[in-house]
């Protein structure tokens, strides 16, 4: 590494990546007070989003560059072509938070907070691509999202996940925390979820295999490919079910794996620290919502 490279890294701010749709949904349903726009629509999601992001940035990530990543329209189509059931449950979900997406983007623009969505790509894949790319060159990355699909990112030493709702001193989720809680490493996360299922993505997993059984099956760093040859012992029944549904298990893992090669341009991030973010009430007025 050259001296010029070391100096460039030192001048590059750490990066805060925000899972946009997840934070918007959490803000809409979990913010303690409701807010109404001038036109009578519910603005709680947009107001809460900015309030929570501002608080997280100020208290945990001051001096970080900030980039919000959203799902693009029809972003799940690629995975749905592999499995028609993928996220099929979303059709019946409550879509009210998404109504605040356009005004939220306007508020972010007014506040100078950069946001990104990439045509045909799920936000998690875009976020994962940027996070891994930046961590690979030595940049510290924080991911602000409660989406467990992103736990795989913790396999990289340079990435942490921020959960401000955690107990004091434990707001940052690390690889060690995943292993302590679930008994698997972040590198095994997609294998683990393929066994236990992911109701959020409408993936059933293997019948009768819960988190404890899955962690036992994956003991010692095993992956799904190791399971058919695993000695049954007390895990005979789940191993039989896995073998009976083998192709489905592998397919679900392929859907759960993050894509680290989304076609996101290198200049998506700037390396420049964001100043303290503007209060949501100010941005609501600037965006003509109040």
Give Rg in angstroms: 20 Å
| Shape by Cα distribution | globular
Mean pLDDT: 91
Helix percentage range: 40-55%
Taking pLDDT < 50 over at least 5 consecutive residues as the criterion, the unreliable ranges are 1-10
Protein described:
40% of the residues lie in helices and 8% in strands. It is an alpha/beta fold. The chain has 2 domains: 193 residues, 5'-nuclease (Rossmann fold, 3-Layer(aba) Sandwich), CATH 3.40.50.1010; 71 residues, DNA polymerase, domain 1 (Orthogonal Bundle). It has a 6-stranded mixed β-sheet with strand order 3-2-1-4-5-6, with helices on both faces. It is globular, with a radius of gyration of 20 Å. It starts with a helix and ends with a helix.
Please tag this protein with its features.
290 residues, alpha/beta, 8% strand, DNA polymerase, domain 1, disordered N terminus, 12 helices, Rossmann fold, 6-stranded mixed β-sheet, 2 domains, globular
